[in-house]
Write a structure and sequence with these properties.
homodimer, 9-stranded mixed sheet, lyase (chains A, B), Aldolase_TIM (chains A, B), 4Fe-4S (chains A, B), EC 4.3.99.3 (chains A, B), 4 iron, 4 sulfur cluster binding (chains A, B)
């Protein structure tokens, strides 16, 4: 099926159409392509199965064309937007091929990454979310790399890319504030964390997540340094709890 | 206090900072100025107190400067964004004064209106939401007026304005689809309606509103004519139920 020259992308799951539950295009009807593999191991990662080995048998190595075909087979004609998430899809140098194939079919492409790696194909992404990880993740983002990424994006339309920081506690919010101060002109989102990624009681989960959202709203409202900020939950968890593939 | 020349704005309430719970800048930290008076009487209006006489004693006639002063007194320096809502604030011909005063202080301004009336000061609004009312409202939007409004906005940046249709049932969704087809290049949102604006049991309300959101997502996912669409709830009702002033 694949010619020798085609490059493979490690795919964990392809699903949709559904709504994007978070960030700059929250609510957008979209398909998801979730890649396997990550350079981070966030303490609270809600997609740890992409890198912790627990779902390694589900990983498939597909060409960009095969991914497009599977998107079409799954979503039919009921989508015009694809979100590439992970793991960290920025690990994949030749992802630009997939972006090109989708654009050829008039399909917009969003990407979610922590901002630890630059790829030239970022310039083709319609909705790019850079999500540097706060202290609670136990990761330590390299801000020189993030500086470089942001500077390479400076000629893009301002609504094509954004920063998003997940916040679990006050220390995380201080980190979010420092990121917003560092890049004051970049569209900026703070988002409630989900510290119960294994909770299966949806009612209890939603009630707790809404309380966490209210806590985050209250904290952001107090801070004049966080005026040009959007505060959002992960909407999909309100609807589907911790289920995968929706 | 007021010189004779200053024009008065009928204000129902001023509150914040809080988050914008819906539409194109959902999650944005903002102050709200809610004006009194409406040319519509939607069957399910969630702010009927602005026009049904039930809160007429709360209406104050304020100048643009007085409104700015009250915003500052209420929100201090913890805001850079003001949302003007109603009622229908587009009824007020001289609202442009308030927009100017706010812009002078580097404060962005959002406006929410049904799109039944054009005002030249719409061109100064940073986030303009036009929300033509669906059949369940029992109102009949004049689409010639909406055509005119959209055509006057055509040179604005595309992320400065949007259409939003509230959807309670399939007939409303058909209406939403017809609006999206009429203005395919305008940023488009569909939003769950709240048919229990007097429910005081927050848990019951939220559970029901989330079910309605899931219903709307499912319906939009099926329709290829609704691919470039964002589907959102009213987030503030998840956090604060039907409370006013938050």
């Amino acid at each position: 099926m694949n010619t020798k020259k085609e490059k493979m992308i490690p795919v964990m799951e392809i699903f949709g159409p559904t709504v994007q539950g978070e960030g700059m295009v929250i609510g957008q009807k979209t398909m998801f392509v979730r890649t396997a593999g990550c350079d981070y191991q966030c303490a609270w990662c809600d997609s740890a199965f992409t890198w912790d080995g627990s779902a390694k048998d589900e990983i498939r190595r597909l060409t960009a064309r095969e991914i497009v075909n599977e998107l079409k087979a799954t979503g039919g004609d009921a989508f015009s937007h694809v979100t590439i998430s992970g793991g960290n899809p920025a690990l994949i140098r030749h992802m630009g091929e997939l972006v090109e194939h989708l654009h050829e079919q008039n399909i917009d492409v969003a990407l979610e990454t922590q901002g630890s790696i630059w790829q030239d194909w970022f310039l083709s992404i319609d909705d790019l979310t850079l999500s540097p990880k706060p202290p609670s993740s136990k990761m330590k983002p390299n801000l020189q790399i993030l500086d470089d990424i942001i500077s390479r994006l400076k000629d893009q339309p301002s609504n094509n890319y954004s920063l998003k920081v997940v916040v679990f506690n006050d220390e995380d919010l201080d980190f979010a504030e420092s990121i917003h101060k560092r890049y004051p002109n970049v569209l900026f989102f703070v988002q409630t964390g989900n510290n119960q990624v294994h909770e299966e009681n949806d009612k209890r989960l939603v009630s707790d997540l809404i309380s966490r959202y209210e806590w985050l709203i209250d904290r952001v409202m107090e801070r004049a340094a966080l005026n040009r900020v959007r505060v959002l939950p992960q909407l999909h968890t309100y609807v589907w709890g911790n289920k995968r593939g929706v």
